[in-house]
Sequence to fold (954 residues):
Amino acid sequence: MLELTICLDPAGEKPLYQQLYDSLAEQIRGGTLRTGDKLPGKRSLASQLAVAVNTVDTAYQMLVAEGYLEARAKSGFFVLEYVDMLPQAGRSGAEKSRDGSEEVPSPAVRFDLSTGAVDTGLFPFRTWGRIQKELLYNGEKLLHHGHRQGDRELRRELAEYLRAYRGVVCDPGQIVVGAGVEYLLGLLAQLLKGHGGFREMTAAVENPGYDRPRTILENNGIPCRCVGIDGGGLDPVELEESGADLCYVTPSHHFPTGVTMPVGRRAQLLRWASAKPGRYILEDDYDAEFRFDMRPLPSLQGMAGPDGRVVYLCTFSKSLAPSIRIACMVLPWGLMEEYGRAFGSYSNTVSRFEQQTLRLFLEGGYFTRHLARMRGAYKGRMEQLAEALEKAFGRDGIRLSGRHTGLHLLLELPGGPGEKEMIASAMREGVKIKGLSEYYMERKELCGENCVILGYASLRDEEIGELVEALRRAWRQ
Amino acid sequence: MLELTICLDPAGEKPLYQQLYDSLAEQIRGGTLRTGDKLPGKRSLASQLAVAVNTVDTAYQMLVAEGYLEARAKSGFFVLEYVDMLPQAGRSGAEKSRDGSEEVPSPAVRFDLSTGAVDTGLFPFRTWGRIQKELLYNGEKLLHHGHRQGDRELRRELAEYLRAYRGVVCDPGQIVVGAGVEYLLGLLAQLLKGHGGFREMTAAVENPGYDRPRTILENNGIPCRCVGIDGGGLDPVELEESGADLCYVTPSHHFPTGVTMPVGRRAQLLRWASAKPGRYILEDDYDAEFRFDMRPLPSLQGMAGPDGRVVYLCTFSKSLAPSIRIACMVLPWGLMEEYGRAFGSYSNTVSRFEQQTLRLFLEGGYFTRHLARMRGAYKGRMEQLAEALEKAFGRDGIRLSGRHTGLHLLLELPGGPGEKEMIASAMREGVKIKGLSEYYMERKELCGENCVILGYASLRDEEIGELVEALRRAWRQ
Fold:
């Protein structure tokens, strides 16, 4: 049972919930409360402190909102890893993080193989910084409102890049730049529902798959149906049966299984979309830049053409950084008029300084060079990891898939102890990984039992040996 | 009748609509087609060129999307003012705008008094640039995903600033940072409807008022009712009668009439909100920083407290620049849990580099100094303009209101020729202004007949004499 030292002063200037919040936050920052610690139940703590349950509840909610605690359904409140997100420098006489210590990740996690990370060491700081500085020194014009779809010059560069590298067929007038794919998906949902949201529709999403698109579509009043994945990606028969009007899909590189949809299946999807009015495919090309073996298949959008039934979505989260919020979507001409009607008065959500930095980065050819460099680095890392794993477990001891494109591998341990145990024992060795079954929103029974996902993007090459050794210890059979 | 020279090549590589688009865009950029020119009807142009109506339609839609044309309901397509948004510099060997010329605003408009502009000459380029550069050089950590509500350190600074300057009572955990008030209003609409959007509700909006909040709420499935404004702001009797659940309001400085809501009326609004469960006030404090006569009244949110029924919204569009997309909202604790459920997996929409630049700008005290400087400059400009107007028209010849806060004045010309004629004759003298009636979404008959709005934020002090002279010529009686 956790020991808590909390002094509240009912006569104090601050309200009790604030005092309780301050005290708990302090203990988390100071390390008295540690990652994973379970806090007392609200009622029990309230009676212990002789305060109302509401007071404890408010303090807990504040701590959850601030990222100190995590609320787990039906089991209570747990302390999250405390990492102050303060950059260390940035001011003269810079402060350290609030508790006076350097920023140290929790000692428990030595290797974080979650997906969604990138290798920040590859970020082109020098060029990006130079462009940014030049723009700011000449930037008075960039302070004014820009085009609602994003600066025209950026959209010209994007159209050209998408045409050349992804076979997307579009005019800059069809491109909408926005602060992340999530934001754009939200707009799209409103657009497709008919702004005002009165048209009833449902969307098919991939299972297994990302859960965020589903959350966003459902938050925008579009219920989702799960459609299964086979060796060719999303199953068109299940799609037809689902009765969906929209289909969210990742054909270049299915997340998380890594399947690339073959061209015949793509044609089937396009036929599905054209078979009824109002059907659209939402093609998320989230990491197609990182194909290692050959040029990626052109996008579905390219097969459908600029008047087709495909909305193309792509992000710069992986190719630049997750914290630089730039994504874009390509709408078919048939939706542009409605787009203008619904969102004609909206401002663009991306700072024009960052839009223009990206434009000049694309225009100067820096982006393609940067991609080539990243692709090389990630490919090397992936191969090194795969080799080390095969050496440690034997070629028959594991099965690796998803090697042709990045930034994660699937690892199966035939006859292993089961996914849950694999994750737990890896965690005991300091390796944080996710299981494939986490990405099944329904029918988890279809998931292989011994399959985990290794996101290697933020791994350092020189750590690979140590990581594989830790996994071998965790899973030795 | 407009003469068009268009050559299409049916055997050409580009599709016909693209050729037509290119040709028209070229003529607009080159000045052959001029601002305000009406294009031929689709059918007529199609038959003239011997192409399908669809071809013309697609080309016109592309031109609308690109900002070359404007579609006016029931009257056709008109050429918009062409201003290339390219910054001139930013690359070595920089290119000029596409048509080879310098960027020149249409010679017709000498003074643009639309609201929404800011004086970009006041932007703190040097400090902002220095902070940005320091952050980038130490910025590897800032490349990772940050907190979904915005970086914690930024939210601490915002909470402190809002407390000190706007009387907002909140914890950083209640603040959500986002890429513009529009984006945040959209999230809020989804949150209040219960994510999924099944709860039926309506919102009251101010009439006259901004139309964008109404557009956003309606796009998110919340129908709006217009509620009138009197000398104390939004009318609480009409609000009660409207049956609305939400009330969007600008109490510090009603847009566009400039009314500040007195404290008694504020209390009435808060009583309205507490009278039924599920009622919320959305307080938009869009330009309260620019109060010239005295310290602004504290926010409604401050009167209601951190658990009250007020969501507070504010933007940095006016105090920094419209193109730097940072705004924030303060949610009551009662909504935070639902916020976490609905948007727990969303990424924040503001680049962390800009978040941290703003944080250090606030933390270093630069922001309050910058505001003081802006306030001084705007106040001086407003007074100079008001004096010059009173001198030119005589104290009884015009009525000015909205002088205590920024960044626009209302000008009434008693016995004048009517708003439409005032706008048209000003335009003939090169002055672009808007009429008050444009902000009436309903019941335009309540609007005074001779009232226009003068946004003076981007005016140069030395131009004021010339501007007032132009208005005197336009409206001489």
